[in-house]
Specification:
InterPro entries: DUF5789. Pfam families: DUF5789. By secondary structure, this protein is mainly alpha-helical. It has a domain of about 60 residues. Helices cover about 45% and strands about 10% of the residues. The strands form two sheets. The protein has a two-stranded antiparallel sheet with strand order 1-4. Strands 2-3 form a two-stranded antiparallel sheet.
Length: about 100
C-alpha cells in the first residue's frame, strides 16, 4: 500500500461523523464521567464538592446537583476516577437518563 492510498482512506473517514446524533430532546445535566475527568485523583469528598459541587449530573431520575449527591456519600476519599464514578452511581442509580 502506498502513502497516497492511506491518505485517501483518512479523508473518507473524516468526511463521515464518528457517531450519528439523533433528533430527540436534549438531556439535562452532564455525565458523571465528564465531571470526573476534570478532577485529579485521589481526591477527598470535600475537595470534589468544593471544585465541582455546583455541577448538575445526569441521573435516571433527571438532573441532580453533585453537591447533594456527595452529601449522601459516606466515602471520605476517592482513590481513583472509577471509584468516584461507582460511588456516585451507587447513590443515583444506573440506567437510561431522563430526557426533557
Amino acid at each position: 500500500m502506498s502513502d497516497t492510498d492511506a491518505d485517501e482512506g483518512d479523508e473518507e473517514a473524516e468526511a463521515e461523523p464518528a457517531v450519528e446524533l439523533g433528533e430527540g430532546p436534549d438531556v439535562a445535566g452532564e455525565p458523571v464521567a465528564r465531571v470526573a475527568s476534570r478532577l485529579t485523583w485521589p481526591a477527598t469528598r470535600s475537595d470534589v464538592r468544593e471544585q465541582e459541587g455546583d455541577a448538575e449530573i445526569r441521573t435516571p431520575d433527571g438532573p441532580r446537583g453533585l453537591d447533594g449527591v456527595l452529601a449522601e456519600s459516606e466515602v471520605p476519599l476517592f482513590e481513583s476516577r472509577s471509584e468516584f464514578v461507582r460511588a456516585v452511581e451507587d447513590i443515583v442509580g444506573r440506567g437510561p437518563v431522563a430526557t426533557e
